Amino acid sequence: MTVGTVRLRNAVFYAHHGVMQEEHRIGGRYEVDVAMDLDFEAAATEDDLSLTVDYEKVYGTVSRVVTGNRFFLIERLAYLIAREILEGSAHLRAVEVTVRKANPPVGGPCDCAEAVYRCVRATEP
Which of 27, 83, 88, 120 could cross-link to 94 by cystine, CB 3.0-4.6 Å? Predict the structure, then answer.
């Protein structure tokens, strides 16, 4: 069995997450990458979307989770996005989600804070 990876890179959202009250009030820029491991050989040879992951649906999931909630931690965002994507597609073996928060309030210059969460589908015994 082969393994390929389908990725969404740098999906950008404006949302209200963070530990500080100001972050919840004002909001900020969040960037999300999703890497999904699966065997897409059949989809590629047959040119059939039903045999792979639909990244338009994945984008919709990411958008809904990021913009439809307010959390303290970007770790929570990465975890929830990854779990929901993995549970939503039987084709996937693993999902890795990276959430970046631009200009985090760390007391000095910093491009971003980043949380990465990877989950792997349990195999059958």
Answer: 120
